[in-house]
Design goal:
By secondary structure, the chain is an alpha/beta fold. The strands form three sheets. The protein has a four-stranded mixed β-sheet with strand order 2-1-3-5. It has a three-stranded mixed β-sheet with strand order 4-9-6. Helix 5 packs across helix 7 and helix 7 packs across helix 9. It is globular and about 55 Å long. It starts with a helix and ends in a 9-residue tail after the last helix. Bound molecules: 2-acetamido-2-deoxy-beta-D-glucopyranose (NAG) (5 copies). It is a single-pass type II membrane protein. Keywords: Glycoprotein, Glycosyltransferase, Membrane, Transferase, Transmembrane, Transmembrane helix. InterPro entries: BC10-like (IPR044174), Glyco_trans_14 (IPR003406).
Amino acid sequence: MGKEQLKPPYFARLLNGHILNHVFHSLLFLVGLSLGIIFSLLYLNAFSFNSQASILSPLLPPSPSHLMHNMDDDELLWRASMVPRVVKCPYKRLPKVAFMFLTRGPLPLGPLWEKFFKGNEGLYSIYVHMHPSFNLTIHEDSVFYMRRIRSKIVEWGKPNMGDAEKRLLSNALLDFCNERFVLLSESCIPLFNFTTIYNYLINSKESFIESFDDPSGNGRGRYNKKMLPAISVSDWRKGSQWIEVNRKHAIEIISDNKYYELFQKHCIQHNCMDEHYIPTLANMLFATQISNRTITWADWSRRGKHRPAELEGASISIEFINHIRYGKNCTYNGENTTICYLFARKFMPDTLQPLLQLRPPLLEL
Ligand SMILES: *[C@@H]1O[C@H](CO)[C@@H](O)[C@H](O)[C@H]1NC(C)=O
Ligand SMILES: *[C@@H]1O[C@H](CO)[C@@H](O)[C@H](O)[C@H]1NC(C)=O
Ligand SMILES: *[C@@H]1O[C@H](CO)[C@@H](O)[C@H](O)[C@H]1NC(C)=O
Ligand SMILES: *[C@@H]1O[C@H](CO)[C@@H](O)[C@H](O)[C@H]1NC(C)=O
Ligand SMILES: *[C@@H]1O[C@H](CO)[C@@H](O)[C@H](O)[C@H]1NC(C)=O
């Protein structure tokens, strides 16, 4: 019985029958629909500037495909400060960490960072703020290729440092996948592999902002009474410039103009903006949500110096690195941990080779 049904005449009959006719029409409809979708996608794609991802795959939120926009700072801050009010996110998004490099010139430790990022595509984005007149050729294969943002001149210790930090945060906020934002300099190194650092940051309940009251001349001494009544000396805090924040706090920082204007006007002493603005702002706006410690290590052991030590190639050894990695106890999400630092500075260019040659390798952990 089964055999008979498979004979060709059966199919010939079917071909003229209603069933196949129906199937045929359905197929035709589906082909037409697909073509329509494909053409509209192609059409839309050709005219979209920065939302390719969202059109090609509804699973991904729109990520800016290039960083060279024409927005001035005001427009950039305004766009970056927008927050979706619908709580449920329609995209399946993998949260990314934004690595924001605030540098004077090139990145002498670039090869180390290339190794660090390798194999972790999709979990990070890089932003580089560099002196605008610096001409740098970056190879297409580099993770830093096309990651330079529109930058302006920065004088270390001067108020325009705050502008550069806000510019970096704003560019990084334009990518909705970025969940954590870490500020780094050209002398910074990672202390652990990408996976360890990524998990530490993504799972943290706090932003890593150091913020403490320093009664000395380099702390409260930099406070200016003209900031009253908005900022009193009891609000005043000091802390490392090298911060790491979550998305919510990044938006708070770039959206603040009230306190920022007071800092620009009245905080003109050296290092006033970079060491006090964010620690004070965080203390005033979200004090209970920060770690009060920095995750970027520096060598302050030389007494009486206002700057951390600059580390040379000769000082690099695995013992030294492990001392930085595990030499302190602190808390993480309310638990004790020996991993307090994820990054370290100030590593001079001649530390690159010793760092790459460490055994066991620096980035194995
Ligand atoms: C970069 O290149 C431009 C034009 O090619 C030149 O005017 C400028 O001086 C260069 N800057 C540096 C720092 O070399
Ligand atoms: C940081 O200090 C504030 C008080 O200034 C406190 O509320 C907060 O709990 C501290 N954060 C941690 C992680 O201890
Ligand atoms: C950190 O805590 C552990 C266990 O509580 C202790 O053995 C170690 O000495 C501490 N390390 C430092 C640097 O205080
Ligand atoms: C964490 O360390 C402190 C001392 O630094 C200790 O008093 C406390 O009991 C520890 N907490 C846990 C959960 O081990
Ligand atoms: C990164 O470090 C963790 C923790 O030490 C380790 O388990 C993991 O295998 C390392 N990953 C890579 C890719 O080296």
